[in-house]
Amino acid sequence: MPEVINLDIDFDDSIYWNGNKVDMSQLDGFFRSERVKPDQPEIHLRPDKRSHYDTTAKVLASAQRNQMLKIGFVNTTEFAE
Question: Residue 9 in 3-state DSSP?
């Protein structure tokens, strides 16, 4: 079973990597470390419905720039209001 990394974006646009607050440069570094693993972990992205889309877009752009292949949104039913 692949490793899972929970990436949360809080209501105030704070970013959390498995519960630890990170900034964008730290996030880039984590993605660079993870992409070289033989079995890349799955990134489960959970943006809070009050967070700004721009923050989510920056996180996705960082993941793409760093060749993260397995990224998906989880618990997004709260957006369907």
Answer: strand
Quickly list DSSP for 12-55.
TS-EEETTEEE-HHHHHHHHHHHHTSSSPPEEEEEE-TTS-HHH
**What is the maximum span of the chain, computed from C-alpha positions, in angstroms?**
39
Tokens for 52, please give them: 């700004």
| pTM: predicted TM-score of the whole model, two decimal places | 0.89
Structure letter (DSSP) for residue 66: T
Tens of pLDDT along 49-75?
999 999 999 999 999 999 999 999 997
The b-or-e profile of 33-54 (16+ CB within 10 A means b, else e) is ebeeeeebbbbbbbbbeebeee
